[in-house]
Amino acid sequence: MSETSKGKIVKVAGPVVVAEGMTGSRMYDVVRVGELKLIGEIVELKGDTASIQVYEETTGIGPGGPVADTEAPLSVELGPGLIESIYDGIQRPLDDLVEAEGSFMSRGSSMPGLSREKKWHFKPTVRQGAEVGPGDIIGQVDETTLVKHKIMIPPVIAGKLKSIKKGDFTVEDTVAVVEDGNGREHQIRLMQRWPVRNARQTQKRLAPNTVLVTGQRVIDAFFPIAKGGTACVPGPFGTGKTVVQHQLAKWVDADIVVYVGCGERGNEMTDVLTEFPKLKDPRSGEPLMKRSILIANTSNMPVAAREASVYTGITIAEYFRDMGYSVALMADSTSRWAEAMREISTRLEEMPAEEGYPAYLAARIASFYERAGRVQCLGNPQREGTLSIIGAVSPPGGDLSDSVVQATLHVVKVFWSLRGRLAYQRHFPAIDWLTSYSFYKQYLKDCFEDTEQGEEMERFTVEAMGLLEQEAELLEIVRLVGAEALSPKDRLALETTRSIREDFLHQNAFHKVDTYTSMTKQYELLKTVLHFHKEGLAAVDAGVDTAQIFKLAIREEIARAKYISESEMDKISEIRERITEQTKQLAGSAVS
Amino acid sequence: MRSLKEYQTVTNISGPLMMVEMVDEAKYAHIVDIELADGSIRHGQILQVERDKALVQVFEGTSGIDVERATVRFLGRPLELGVSRDLLGRVFSGLGAPKDDGPAIIPDKRLDINGRPINPFARDYPNEFIQTGISTIDGLNPLVRGQKLPIFSGAGLPHDKITAQLARQAAVLGKEEEFAVVFAAMGITFEAAQFFIDDLQQTGAIERAVMFVNLANDPAIERIATPRFALTAAEYLAFDLDMHVLVILNDMTNYCEALREISAARKEVPGRRGYPGYLYTDLATVYERAGRIKGKTGSITMVPVLTMPEDDKTHPVPDLTGYITEGQIILSRSLHRKAIAPPVDVLPSLSRLKDKGIGEGKTREDHADLYNQLYAAYAHGKEAQELATIMGEAALSDEDRKYMAFADRFEVRYIGQDYYENRTVEQTLDLGWELLSMFENVELKRIDVKLIEKYMPRFRSKKEPQVDEQNTADAGTAEGTE
To answer: Which of A99, A105, A237 to mutate to test the interface with B (most CBs of B within 10 A)?
Structure first.
């Protein structure tokens, strides 16, 4: 990258540095600040004076220091080697940094996002002489056992493929040459660059139409997210936002997972790093790390890089979407991203809007979530890719009227509301079933191969949700006049909803079986709980005392059904048979 | 040593801030010495530089400084702490100057007190269980090495006794390793600091302790540097000298107030309750210095203490702390009133790293299921208690009454212990089983059946014999037939 040294520092205030003599610099150009060559980005221009947000700690920087302009916007490197990487907010590989600089982060280091030495085996999929255009796939690299990395023609290049080579290449080697209409030659390499603040192009946006299965019962059955959809998880601290995000990153039915740890805890990233290589993908049996990319800008790392980390993540995610993959991006937490924006804005002395956040907060959040979607990818062969975004929000004091939550709710289609009350009862995931919502519920039935089963599941979820609504009302009555006032049927309803809550909605992320539940098993479990309700009602009609129904031995089996492994699923239907048996027996004895 | 330029160009002084003009070579975050007319020296740090103007925050406050005669020297380095093994057993001021009668430290090296962020890839996951001897922590919210677990307290609650108990009892099972305690006092009273020091002296642990003390009547701005001095010392002890360090920061609320004072003096746009918008980031640079590092023996475990104004958990200081730390131990005023000690409010307390530090080979296989069950049962009992206060105990179902009885017993026996009682983790776990033995097996939904079969019989046999679950169900059917 070319660097022209021209500016001179005149002011330093925390992460913001002001330099003069910056004539000709453009907004969002990356600059190197001071003798230490700290990485920064121009965020404001006034005449020849530029305000720069610096991605590193500015201690020891003072007026008079040099500023060099790289004359390029903040970009990421896209190519083989992304998968299994762990980057900081501006795509510096953290694992390589440890090797080069030790356990603590130092300043001014520049390390390319992709290894320059590693060779990849490239297999062309088009022949020499073919006409190619932007986004066309010309070959692939088997990056990991799970990911076939498609090599695409970068945008704006089109023409005739003059040459294409099979073999082992580094990311900088030329693998193909394209001659455009004017006779100019373009070298195609395994790697391309893309500025992070611009969305990558697509041919057409499409509406999401399938559910992104997560293996989390409360999410899949009641508040599903679609492939290409957006969801947010707000909640006060200690309600399990991060566990929900981790669970999704582990089990989500996506080809690629990008996990952005934005201003969160260092130990959480370590958790992901130590756990992902050990966990197996339930579909392929391969380690989950082989489809994951991690971006870690923990809370004690410089605040400006935190602002960039979200864009770095989404650009990488878009790149894989363009290959025709389904990609899921988890951002934990978008509140920290918003706070980083606020801090920079304050240092720039911009006029604040609500709670000191900049006036453009809502616009930035909206345009970030809009980068999700199901798309017709650019180029040939025709393919569809999806990018789903799941953002955690950490509102102060758990207050949902917080600006970040409100701005997010305006744009997302799925809302998983985490409640402190549920967390105290150790009901996890602490997703409140009465206030959460999803706009993608209609696609749930298509998750099942058997359409009948799908429609049945849809009915079950409606019935269960109806009962849960009823529970809230009944509990109100109990609170006012006591449990005695309830009719036997209402009492049964309360017992059933308790079973729905404890035996279906409650899910233990740390239990080896319970951590992931397939759609079929979810169907079986819900069917069993509701079967108990149905048979119970019949027994009540036959005059059986509810207390006896509640004492049935089968109830313990229902409670433990969720721990039955996927391979022994027929055991769950056996439970239903015994429910019928035992309630019939009760009803029989009540009649006699 | 190169000669330092001196400036007598102080122009404005306002609150803790001072403007010096016509300077060259002022660098952001470097420190200055300020010599007053009477020859006394104060210390400051550069908060902002613009051309030839430097904005300096004065740690000891600006009273007595005048614009005419004050002399400012720019030292050309950030705030540093000289470290060596001799730090152990010493007491320092909030700005790192020896405060006891001992000699000055001859440093092995000088370290920038801001430290550097640990590369997330270099972190090692905290998974070594620390036995604190306190049931509510060991049993329900286990602390692991490298964790940061704050105590959310309130005015008049005994957090000092708990931190002293932690410092006294915390140990890793079955290991004899070098340990150290680093204590940073920020704006606490002489009494509170002395209580802690005396306690360490009694157990002899004082020789393995380093203290940085900024008392309530010491300069408030100094508190901004105090935890950073403490953590720099801790990092040196942990990662250079391979010790396991327990850092206690008391009280973080005072620290945040000092930060607010600076922010207000700089006329920054305030966030919630006047605290600066960057409070989260600032607190993170303190808390995130806890941890373990791959390939290094030592570790830093952190217990920050903060007092919640009005016991309000949503106040910015506890709120933002909770978002950074790995859980929180919350103290309860109502338990304290009932003379249950230590008064840990079990339900909202949480240790996020608990699942990694417990289980077979670490504590015992039944640990995870057991705490889930205890939590659930206690939560049910508390709900019943609330219901009883609204509608009277008569309105409760038999089941609710049973859980209520459990909650009472749990509070007295499990939560309640003495500040000098050091329970082993086995004792804590067994106590849990004993308390749960008042329930039928079928009610213990959160515990694996195999574990119930293995552990419960021991505690059942102590009480009157109980019919097993199958018989109970049959008995129910039989009754129905009559």
So the answer is: A237
Q: Do A355 and B271 touch (CB under 8 A)?
A: yes
Q: At what angle do helices B316-324 and B279-287 cross, to 10 degrees?
A: 50
Host domain of residue B18: 5-78
* Cα(B348)–Cα(B269) distance, integer angstroms: 32
Same domain assignment for residues B36 and B106: no
**Residue in B17, B148, B149, B323 to test binding to A, most A beta-carbons within 10 Å:** B323
Paired with A256 in beta bridges are A327
Burial class (CB in 10 A: 0-12, 13-18, 19+), B82: middle
Residues B87 and B190 in one domain: yes
The 3 state secondary structure assigned to A501-549 is HHHHHCCCCCCCCCCCCCHHHHHHHHHHHHHHHHHHHHHHHCCCCHHHH
Contact A271 B125 (CB under 8 A): yes
Q: How many domains does chain B have?
A: 3
Question: Model's pTM, two decimal places?
Answer: 0.90
For chain A, domains (ranges, CATH) are: 4-72 (2.40.30.20), 115-190 (2.40.50.100), 204-444 (3.40.50.300), 451-591 (1.10.1140.10)
Domain-ending residue, one of B60, B78, B96: B78
Residue A402's closest chain B neighbor by CA? B272
Tens of pLDDT along chain B (482 residues) come to 456 788 999 999 998 999 999 998 899 999 999 999 999 999 999 999 999 999 999 999 898 899 999 999 999 999 999 999 999 999 999 999 999 889 999 999 999 999 999 999 999 989 899 999 999 999 999 999 999 999 999 999 999 999 999 998 888 877 678 889 999 999 999 999 999 999 998 888 889 999 999 999 998 889 999 999 999 999 999 999 999 999 999 999 999 999 999 889 888 878 788 898 889 889 999 999 999 999 999 999 999 999 999 899 889 999 999 989 999 999 999 999 999 989 999 988 989 888 888 988 889 999 999 998 999 899 889 988 988 887 788 878 888 899 999 999 999 999 999 899 999 999 999 999 999 999 988 888 888 889 999 999 988 865 544 444 444 444 333 333 33
ipTM attached to this prediction: 0.86
Among B62, B78, B94, residue at a domain's last position:
B78
Residue with tokens 């890793």: B172
Assigned domain for B482 exists: no
Judged by CB atoms closer than 8 Å, whether chains meet at B379 and A424 is answered as yes
